[in-house]
Amino acid sequence: MTPLGRRAALAATVLALCTALASARPDPQDLPRGVVIDDVKCAADATQSYALYLPSGYTPQKAWSLLIAFHPAARGRAMVETYQAAAEQYGYIVAGSNNSRNGPWPVSSAAAQAIGADLGQRFSIDPQRMYATGMSGGARVAMMVALSNTRIAGVIASSAGYPDSQPRSNVPFAVFGTTGTEDFNYLEMRQLDRALKTPHHLAVFNGGHTLPPDNVAFEAIDWMELQAMKSGRRARDEALIDRLLQKRRAAVDASTSPTETVHLLDALVADFSGLRDVSSEAARAKDLAKQPDVKKALARERASDDAEARMLGDVFELEAALAGADRHASALMSLRGRLASLAQKARDERDSPERSQARRVLRSMTSGAATRTHDREYLALLDEYGIRGR
Predict the structure, then answer these.
(1) CATH number, domain containing residue 159
(2) Which of 235, 262, 290 is the last residue before a domain boundary?
(3) What is the pLDDT of residues 65-117, one digit of tens each?
(4) How many domains are there within the chain?
(5) Coil, strand or helix: which one is 37?
(6) Domain contains 284
(7) What is the DSSP string of 142-157?
C-alpha cells in the first residue's frame, strides 16, 4: 500500500475509533480494578485482544482519560505495566494491543480499530483526554493514529517517531518523546525534538532501544497533565502545578552541567508558561546560554548530532555502492574500516558521549541491514563488529 493509501486507510480507522470512544457506554462486565488484565477479548472479534488497566477507583459515572498503547512485538502487558503507576495516580485507563506488531500495516490498523470500538462500548471515556503511545514500530503506529485525527490529545513516542521518519515543525497534538543514549533511533528522536514548535518534550535516559524506565514513564504522564491544563482539556489543579514545578526546579538545582541546565530551564519555561511566573528561569537560561563556554558547548552538541547524521548518510551510501561490481571492493574496505573504528570506541570502558555515539551508529548499521543489502561479506562484517542487544 502506498503512503497515501496508508494515510487514507488509517484516517478511516481512527474516525471509527474516535466515534466509538465518543459514544462510550458503561462497562457491561465486572472487570477487576487496580490490576493488569492480560487478555481482554474484543466483543466483536475474539481474535483481537488487549491488556488492560482500570484505575482502582474506576466507575462508569465519570469520564476517564485513555491511553492506547502499541508494542512492536504485540506485548500489550509490557506497555500497560510501563504506565500502570501513573495511570493509577492520574486516573487513566490503559489498553495495550496484543495484536499490533511490526509488519504489514493492515495488522496494526485492524488492531487499532478493534480496540477503539471495544473500549468505547465497555468504558466511560473522556473524548478530550485520549492519548496514544508506542515503543519503536509501535510508536510509529501511535503517531500515525494521532496524525490522522485531531481528537488525539497527545502521543508518548518511545524510540521512534513519525511513520515516515521525517521531522515536522507542527502537529495538532502534544508529543513526549523518549530515547536511550545508546538507542539506534536516538538521532531521529533528537531531530524530531529540534524541529517541533508545537508542545513537545524529549526525555533521554541511559540505555538503548527500550521502553522508558518507570520514572520517565511517570514523567511523561505528568507532562501530559500539564499540557491538558494549559489547553483547557482538564481543570487547573494548583497544588499539582506547584508540586510539578517544585520537582522541575529541584532538577535544575541538581544539574552539574551548564548545557543540561540550559535545556532544563528552557523546558521548564516552555511547560509552565501561562501556569506560573517563570520569568526568572527564562532570564537565567538566556544569560547562561550567552556565556562563551556554554555557547560553545551547545554548538558542539548540535554539531555532534549533525556529524552523526552525516556519518550514517555516508554509511548508507557505501552500502548502496556494494551492489555495483566496480565499487564493491572499495566500498567494502571503507565499511570495514568504519566498523573497526566504531567497535574500538564502543568497547571503551569509560562512559563518554563518543562511546555512546559509536554504539548508536553500530546499532543503526546492524538494525535492518538485511533489508538494505544482501551482500554476504558485509553482513558477515556486521556480525563480527556489530553490537548485540537493543
Answers:
(1) 3.40.50.1820
(2) 235
(3) 999 999 999 999 999 999 999 999 999 999 999 999 999 889 999 999 999 89
(4) 2
(5) strand
(6) no
(7) HHHHHHT-TTEEEEEE
Helix axes 105-122 and 137-147, enclosed angle (nearest 10)? 60
Confirm if 82 and 217 have CB atoms less than 8 A apart.
yes
Q: What is the chain's mean pLDDT, rounded?
A: 92
The answer on 327 and 222 residing in a single domain is no
Q: Are residues 219 and 365 in the same domain?
A: no
Stated pTM of the model = 0.91
Q: Is 183 a domain residue?
A: yes
Are the C-beta atoms of 193 and 305 separated by less than 8 Å? no
Rounded percentage of the chain residues whose pLDDT exceeds 70: 92
Structural domain for 231, as ranges = 3-235
Cβ atoms within 10 Å of 124's Cβ, excluding its own = 18
Give residue 136's region: left, alpha or beta (phi > 0; psi -120 to 50): left
Q: Give residue 15's pLDDT band: very low, low, confident or very high (50, 70, 90).
A: very low
Phi-psi category of 274—alpha, beta or left, where left has phi over 0 and alpha has psi -120 to 50? left
Q: What angle do CA 223, 229, 231 make, to 5 degrees?
A: 100
Task: State the first-to-last Cα distance of the chain, in angstroms, to the nearest integer.
Answer: 29
24-73 pLDDT, tens digit each: 444 445 899 999 999 999 999 999 999 999 999 999 999 999 999 999 99
Query: Is residue 211 domain-shared with residue 322, that is, in the same domain?
Result: no
Q: Say whether both 10 and 104 belong to one domain.
A: yes
User: Sign of the C-alpha dihedral, residues 75, 216, 116, 118?
Assistant: positive
Based on the domain organization, do 349 and 231 belong to the same domain?
A: no
List, in sequence order, every residue forming a beta bridge with 36; answer none if it has no partner. 53
* Segment 344-349 long-range contacts (CB within 8 Å, at least 24 positions apart): 346/387
84 lies in the same domain as 169: yes
The DSSP code sequence of 346-383 is HT-SS--HHHHHHHHHHHHHHTTHHHH---HHHHHHHH
Last residue of a domain, one of 235, 257, 274: 235
In a domain, 256, yes or no: no
Contact 319, 335 (CB under 8 A): yes
Instruction: Please state the length of the chain.
Output: 390
- List pLDDT tens digits, range 285-333: 999 999 999 999 999 999 999 999 999 999 999 999 999 999 999 999 9
The answer to the question of residue 231 being in a domain is yes
